[in-house]
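Retro notes (design track)

What went well: tokenization of the new backbones is finally stable.
What didn't: we kept losing track of which sequence belonged to which structure.
Fix going forward: every design gets posted as structure first, then sequence, in one message. First example under the new rule, 219 residues:
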């Protein structure tokens, strides 16, 4: 029997929710376990139902999607969050990723991209729509406001840090990386923090995009 991945859809427009439900109903490995029309409901469902993934709109009544993402990350950190929104501005993208979203796609995306995005975040990886990915990359700046030269940034990493970067970008957690590299979890955490500092990246999504663009991992 095909294993089922549970999904909560957080979207305040009933027609859009129904459309996503209809689309995903044909996927044998996905099961809709809840529908939320507010950010507060999305957080409650994530905590009570413990789904594998929440499909999150950003514009919802109440505290909205960004607050819901942060709330789910605090109370149910194992739940993956895939943002599905019309917003493609830097402010929304950066805040969603900073709050803990695992992926970010636009509502103009096709059905195939939605399926791909869901399965990507379920694998523990980051998925960004092409337009979103380009914006994230273009905003990878040093504190001085100038883009860090790619060669210099990569060369600043030790061989061990490059290994950790690759494994993090591929979706592995600290415990998995520690086991794979025969290191302690604390050592992995130190290497990971050093990578983020040297590359001036603030979250795993940006780190993954950096690794793909610089051919450290396959896109």
């Amino acid at each position: 029997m095909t294993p089922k991945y549970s999904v909560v859809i957080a979207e305040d427009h009933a027609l859009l929710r129904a459309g996503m439900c209809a689309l995903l109903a044909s996927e044998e490995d996905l099961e809709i376990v809840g529908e939320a029309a507010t950010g507060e409901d999305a957080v409650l469902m994530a905590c009570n139902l413990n789904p594998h993934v929440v499909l999150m709109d950003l514009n919802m009544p109440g505290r909205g999607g960004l607050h819901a993402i942060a709330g789910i990350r605090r109370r149910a950190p194992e739940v993956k969050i895939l943002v599905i929104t019309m917003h493609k501005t830097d402010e929304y993208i950066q805040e969603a990723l900073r709050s803990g979203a695992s992926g970010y796609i636009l509502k103009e995306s096709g059905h195939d991209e939605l399926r791909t995005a869901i399965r990507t975040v379920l694998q523990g990886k980051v998925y960004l729509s092409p337009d979103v990915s380009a914006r994230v990359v273009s905003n990878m700046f040093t504190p001085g406001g100038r883009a860090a030269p790619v060669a210099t940034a990569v060369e600043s990493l030790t061989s061990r840090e490059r290994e950790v970067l690759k494994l993090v970008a591929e979706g592995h957690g600290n415990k998995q990386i520690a086991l794979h590299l025969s290191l302690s979890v604390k050592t992995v955490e130190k290497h990971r923090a050093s990578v983020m500092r040297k590359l001036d990246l603030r979250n795993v999504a940006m780190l993954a995009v950096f690794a793909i663009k610089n051919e450290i991992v396959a896109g």
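Added context from the reviewer: Residues 141-149 have pLDDT under 50 and may be disordered.
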